[in-house]
Amino acid sequence: MEVLSGLSLEEIENITNAFGASKYRAKQIHNWIYTKSVSSFDEMTDLGKDFRQTLKDNFLITDTKVVSKQVSSDGTIKYLIEYPDGERVETVLMRFDNRANLTACVSSQIGCAVNCSFCATGKQGFKRNLNYKEIIEQVLTIQRDTKLKVTNIVFMGQGEPLLNLDNVLKALEIFNNDFRIGARRITISTSGIIPQINHLAELNLQSTLAISLHAPNHSIRCKIMPIEKKYPIDELKKALINYVDKTGNRVTIEYILIHNLNDTFESAKELAFFLKDIKCNVNLIPYNPVTETGYKKPLKNDIMKFKYILEHSGKKVTVRLERGADIDAACGQLSGKVNNLKG
Ligand code: SAH
Ligand code: SF4
After folding, report:
1. pLDDT tens figures, 131-183
2. Rg (CA), the chain
């Protein structure tokens, strides 16, 4: 049976047409799917009973299942979702107390081929791309469960979004047009796939591009991110300068702080110098422990020093709050395995 989630208003109109119903019915259905995010046709109370039955007989609202849901002590919720082929993925909802924001952290692939040494997803290897419907289903899952509208989206779950760019761009279009989530409320995070960054510059992307830099130079980056051999940091810098030039938008530089590896005074100085010509904000991410890496969290004092040095160089710097670590939902901890779940 055909699934309605992921369809545009025009596509739903084609369906209502075929069943002899008006365009207005299509609008109502569209609203029930993307705004009110119902789980059943019975909840579409402004449609006639017979029409609801016709829909039930011919369509599904969704074909994904929620395998489990965990709520962290800080209010973060992690969902494990299963697609019809049995593959599973995790998606996370973060609330920030003092704001009305509800941020969904979505996955773009099952596993990831980039294999960064500090990341649980990378350890799984790459299974397959998610198609755009599977990406938007993650946000719908959150909305159906919480009955709330997601306001912000970050592509910071499992997978490398720029290695699945067609589906990510199509999902962006649906987030804009159907969910009515503005491009500026969406962030795409990448390990630095240079040709695709250049492509996004040409497309004049208006969403925020976040770059997982994590090192101030080639040799440290090589140790933790194998992608550095293919797309070296100096080339990446050129691509970022070009991106800022073409789009007029500031990029976000993400930098994981790992104790004694890239969190030293020298690294901070070198990073400040490297970022001098790039219009950017910096987001420092204290390393979240993942098994079998041997890496340690940074010391509080070193985080503060690192931040200070970058601020002193004129950058706006934030330290990312750890969210949902007690349920393995923090950055880099998503693996999509049910045996990964605690309690
Ligand atoms: N593949 C993309 C997007 C997903 S990862 C990327 O790498 O950018 C989202 C963010 O979490 C990235 O900045 C990533 O480097 C970071 N991350 C991965 N493992 C982590 C860990 N163990 N602790 C803290 N952050 C981590
Ligand atoms: Fe892939 Fe991002 Fe994890 Fe690296 S940090 S392995 S690019 S998901």
Report:
1. 999 999 999 999 999 999 999 999 999 999 999 999 999 999 999 999 999 99
2. 21
Pick from 218, 292, 301, 296: nearest CA to 256: 296
**Is any atom of ligand 2 closer than 6 Å to the C-beta of 116?**
yes
Q: Establish whether residue 115 lines the binding site of ligand 2, counting it when its CB lies within 6 angstroms of any ligand atom.
A: yes
Nearest to 141 by CA among 83, 75, 96: 83
Residue 274 tokens, joined: 């490297």
Q: Which two tokens stand for residue 242?
A: 């070009």
Together in a domain, 147 and 46 = no
Give me the CATH number covering residue 55. 1.10.150.530
Domain that residue 298 falls in: 65-341
Query: 3-state DSSP call for residue 167?
Result: helix
3-state secondary structure of 153: strand
Q: What confidence tens digit (pLDDT) does each residue in 58-97 have?
A: 999 999 999 999 999 888 999 999 999 999 999 999 986 6
Same domain? 306 vs 186: yes
Name the token pair of 299: 């010391």
Q: Which two tokens stand for residue 28?
A: 């109502």
Q: Is residue 148 located within the same domain as residue 182?
A: yes
Closest ligand 2 atom to Cα of 109: 8
- Kindly list the catalytic residues: 90, 331
Report the nearest-CA residue for atom 3 of ligand 1.
Answer: 156
Task: Provide the 10 A C-beta neighbour count for residue 105.
Answer: 28
For residue 332 and ligand 1, the question of a CB distance below 6 A is answered with yes
State if residue 134 touches ligand 1 by the CB under 6 angstroms criterion. Answer: no
Q: Which of 212, 263, 282, 334 most suits a substitution to test ligand 1, by most atoms within 8 Å of the C-beta?
A: 212
Closest to 9 (Cα-Cα) out of 165, 211, 179: 179
